[in-house]
Design a protein that fits this description.
Layout: H1 5-18, H2 24-30, H3 35-44, H4 48-59, E1 88-89, E2 96-97, E3 109-110, E4 113-114, E5 120-121, E6 128-130, E7 139-140, E8 143-144, E9 153-155
Antiparallel strand pairs: 1-2, 1-5, 3-4, 6-9, 7-8
């Protein structure tokens, strides 16, 4: 188990040695991207256990010297400040993830059934567009924005996650 930033770096270096260079995870490690983006790429590449280890490291309260992607912007004007773009989404139920909040299997439970989907990485340029009516804040006055379900962003990747989806864009996500 990774307990310090040094042990995290060592574990990532060891894992990188066995990864094929063509994987998005290997490329993210090589570019020294934030740990959160590395974890999301690992999920997409099928390295769910590795992503879970990274997530557990941060759940234990460890700092990320590189910074986590997807942390909310801290401001005094919470009602009108834009929310930073999501980092992932479940294609099955539309749950939107920020940072490493939901790294791995989707936690949604509906009518006693757990969603069968997995949070998929959505960190590429053009994946998200700030909602125009609420300017990316997710709120209109005291209520959630009706246009984006309070997310503040609309999923815009052409073709969806696999590049072949014929669903109309934007795809409107939802919060927990």
């Amino acid at each position: 188990m990774m307990q310090t930033t040094a042990s995290l770096e060592q574990a990532v270096d060891e894992f990188r040695r066995v990864l094929p260079s063509a994987t998005a995870t290997a490329q993210a490690i090589d570019r020294r991207e934030p740990w959160g983006l590395i974890a999301l790429n690992a999920i997409d590449d099928g390295y769910v256990d590795f992503a879970a280890q990274l997530s557990a490291f941060f759940d234990a309260g460890q700092d990320d010297a590189r910074g986590l992607a997807g942390e909310p912007i801290e401001t005094g004007a919470a009602d009108s400040a834009p929310i930073q773009a999501p980092t992932g989404m479940c294609p099955e139920c539309g749950l939107v993830a920020f940072g490493l909040d939901f790294c791995g299997q989707c936690p949604t439970v509906s009518e006693g059934e757990t969603c069968k989907g997995w949070i998929r990485s959505a960190v590429n340029d053009g994946d998200w567009s700030a909602c125009d009516p609420c300017n990316g804040a997710g709120r209109e006055g005291a209520a959630d924005c009706a246009h984006c379900n309070g997310v503040g962003w609309l999923f815009m990747r052409p073709g969806g996650f696999d590049g072949t989806a014929l669903t109309a864009l934007p795809i409107i996500g939802r919060r927990r």
